[in-house]
Design a protein that fits this description.
Distance between the termini: 38 Å
Oligomer: single chain
Shape: globular
Number of helices: 9
Bound molecules: nicotinamide-adenine-dinucleotide
Largest sheet: 6 strands, parallel
CATH superfamily of the largest domain: Lactate dehydrogenase/glycoside hydrolase, family 4, C-terminal
Strand content: 15-25%
Number of domains: 2
Structural class: alpha/beta
């Protein structure tokens, strides 16, 4: 797909949607971005503000639109809905956002699009599941941003602690994008060395205590940010650009997006994050890694947490 033809529709022109667009337009990755939001004035204002920077960046058209614009889009990103307030968990948002996203998905369905759909609104795993059930699309075309952000936080915090460039750290957060997420220490490598061996060589800290602390810090990051400044949007904006690159450039990148599981990791009929190969058709393949017994149990518990919420809110 040539750059000149790439079209992205972003639904939700709030902090997350507009930060994503602001980051995306600087990459030269797309020709056209269409913004949709229930608040039409806000969309117009955001488009004016973003467009006034166009002389400084690669050519791109940014405009307001409606759901008919989804028909020939390559990628549709849903960021519309309520956000957490201090002390609220992502799962607390479920009742409000299930109905908002169901209406949006219905409008996308009517457009008869072949785009890949990326859900970002929280609780992202539950809403991705709801979209899978609502759309008669190949399940691989419906993705949640999942723990791509948490995985980035994990790599950043490891990099800070170890004094190593985060690009040289391979590590994944699995499961729910939320309180039951699982740091997969058995899959964590620095310079190609498994973390348990790397820690023996480095020996600068009590590695078990450090692992526990970093796992907690990653899980609780959003609570701290929301407490300090109201909401999180910069890192998720960049995480969404990373997912967009993988899809629009057909990169076959390994990303911990949320996808519908059908037996992988012993889990069924739930959406959560595990390492997936992502390309222009969405999730091309789910990679099933050998986890420790404890990690398997934590992942199964995370799936149970999500399944119990799904059972309450999705009919
Ligand atoms: P925000 O309040 O700044 O923006 C939400 C926007 O959605 C508003 O502009 C609102 O007008 C719009 N909206 C509401 N209902 C709509 C509808 N029916 N149709 C179209 N637009 C509608 O919130 P935000 O900070 O941008 O966060 C958006 C969502 O993203 C929240 O659910 C938040 O929890 C989530 N989020 C997810 C991640 C992640 O990693 N998945 C990270 C950060 C935030």
């Amino acid at each position: 797909m040539s750059v000149e033809k790439r079209k992205v529709v972003v639904i939700g022109a709030g902090s997350v949607g507009t930060t994503y667009v602001y980051s995306l337009i600087q990459t030269g990755l797309v020709a056209e971005i269409v913004l949709i939001d229930a608040n039409h004035k806000k969309v117009e204002g955001e488009i004016m503000d973003l467009s006034h920077g166009l002389p400084f960046i690669p050519p791109v058209r940014i405009r307001a639109g409606d759901y008919a614009d989804c028909a020939d889009a390559h990628l549709i990103v849903v960021t519309a809905g309520a956000k957490q307030t201090p002390g609220q968990s992502r799962l607390d948002l479920v009742r409000t956002n299930v109905s908002i996203v169901a209406d949006i998905v219905q409008s996308i369905k009517s457009s008869d699009t072949n785009a890949v759909l990326v859900i970002v609104t929280n609780p992202v795993d539950v809403l991705t599941y709801a979209a899978v059930k609502q759309l008669d699309w190949p399940k691989s075309r419906i993705i949640g941003s999942g723990t791509v952000l948490d995985t980035s936080r994990f790599r950043f915090m490891l990099s800070r602690h170890c004094g190593i460039d985060p690009h040289n750290i391979h590590a994944y957060i699995l499961g729910e994008h939320g309180d039951s997420e699982v740091p997969a220490w058995s899959m964590t490598h620095i310079a190609g060395i498994a973390i348990k061996d790397y820690c023996k060589i480095c020996a600068k800290c009590d590695s078990q205590k450090t692992h526990d602390r970093i796992g907690r810090q990653v899980r609780d990051s959003a609570y701290h940010i929301i407490d300090y400044k109201g909401s999180t949007y910069y890192a998720i904006g960049l995480a969404l650009v990373r997912i967009s690159q993988a899809i629009l450039r057909n990169e076959h990148s390994v990303l911990t997006v949320s996808s519908f599981l059908q037996g992988e990791y012993g889990l069924d009929n739930v959406c959560l994050s595990v390492p997936c190969v992502v390309g222009q058709t969405g999730v091309e393949r789910i990679i099933v890694a050998e986890l420790t017994a404890n990690e398997k149990k934590q992942l199964a518990d995370s799936a149970k947490t999500l399944a119990s919420v799904i059972a309450k809110v999705i009919t």
